[in-house]
Every structure is written in structure tokens, then in C-alpha cells.
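Could you help me review a protein record that somebody else here produced? This is what I was given.
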Amino acid sequence: MLGIIAGGGDLPRAVAQSVRAEGRDVFVVGLRGCVTPGWVETFPHEFVSLGEPGKALKALAGAAVREVLLAGRVDRPKFSELKLDAKGMMVLPKVIAAARQGDDALLRCMVDIFEREGFRALSVAEAAPGLVCGIGPLGRLAPAEDHQADIASGFRIVKTLGALDVGQAAAVCDGLALAVEAAEGTDQMIARIASLREALRGTPDHRRGVLVKALKPTQDAKTDMPVIGVETVRNAAAAGLAGIALEAGKSLIVGKGDVAAEADRLGLFVTGVAT
């Protein structure tokens, strides 16, 4: 039995469905205020707040879970407003201290709470390898020669800023950094590019600029691997970008078939790059 600590977005559901399709039982702990409603009820589950780690641990143990993973977006809480159970009161000082060090440290702290109770923490790549981005194009289109320099520049930007826990994504056009991801997330970062369409000077038949996503150098793949889905492709197309480049082996694609089809329809490439 695999336990999934489910935050927001489409990734937790995709992981749960992938793991179940492989014949393994799944128990979901949905984080209230974070998890996307609806799908959790199709699995054995329990809902908990971020201040109830004791309740989560009890539910996982009761379901005979031995391995856990954290998937999905977890918004930083207002610690003064959290309703805490007994375990939450014990670990709160440690969690607050980790939060002051950045989002990566906070997520690692959350994973550590479960590991200290005897659970083995997995990455999404270990539990659902079918979601991992491979090397090369996903759909029919591949990056043209004039995109390669922007892809390389994008990876340098993400790796450099990622070391400072800034973000996992950047958009580059003709060597110009159009945007870098911070706390707002990838979709909001892409939205900012729309106001820079003149800088792209592209047309529907000749898109320019790339979105690059990569794992931060300081990041633990057990907590927050870069991820894209169909909506990312649509947003990139709306912003006038030519394609998306992901760090192969260290990024996730939710719904590979749908992503490939939508990228082909919109005329974008989606490709995995070995770094």
C-alpha cells in the first residue's frame, strides 16, 4: 500500500491513477485547502489539515501503508491560524524554522516527519515512472536550430536561480530572459509573458522563445519535481512561445498523450533534454 500526501493541482491524481493502474493499492491523505476536490473520494482516503500530522500518521498506519510520497502544490500556511493536533504542536517549531529557510526546506521537513515515524519516502519518479519526461521530442515537432541557444540559456538561468530557491522555470527568446518563475508558479509566470509579445515578434507560423523547466540544484526529487500538463502547453502557445524544454529524468508530464496531441495541434514542441 502506497500513501500519497496530496496537495493541489493535477499531479496527485495522475500519480494515484498511475500507481493503481500498475496494480498497487493506494491510500490518499488529502490536505485540506490544498487538494483539488472530487477525485480523492475514488480512493481510500482521509482528509487532514496542515496542522494535523498526527491524524495523517494514524490514518496511514491504519491503512497498513509503508511507503509515502508527497505530490502536488502545498501553499505556505499562516502558522498562527493553524489548528494543531498533539503531533502538530510538537513539530511546529521545526516546521517554522524550515519555512524560514525557503519552500524547499519546508517540503523536506514535511517528508522528514513521515520518515522519522518509520515510513519510506518515495519520489514520484520511483512510484510512477510513466510520468517521467524522457529524452527527445514528445510530439511530432522538435526544436529548430535557432531554439537550441535559448534552451541552453534557459537551463543556465533556472539552475543558477534554483540554487537560491527562486523557481524551476524561465522563458528565453533570442537570449533575452523574458521571465523567471518565483512564488507565483509557472502558469502565472507565463501569463506575464503575454504582455511581452512584441519582444517575441513571432507569428502563428513562426513562434519564438522557449519555456524551460528543471529541478533546482538544491531540491529533493522526493518533494517537488518540475511538472507540466496540457494547460501548460496551452498557456505557452497563448504567450507566443515556440516550445517547452524539460530536464529529462527529473521532470514530470501529466497526461503525455494529451500533452503531445495538444502541442502538435498548437504547433509547439515539447522536448526532454539531458543536462
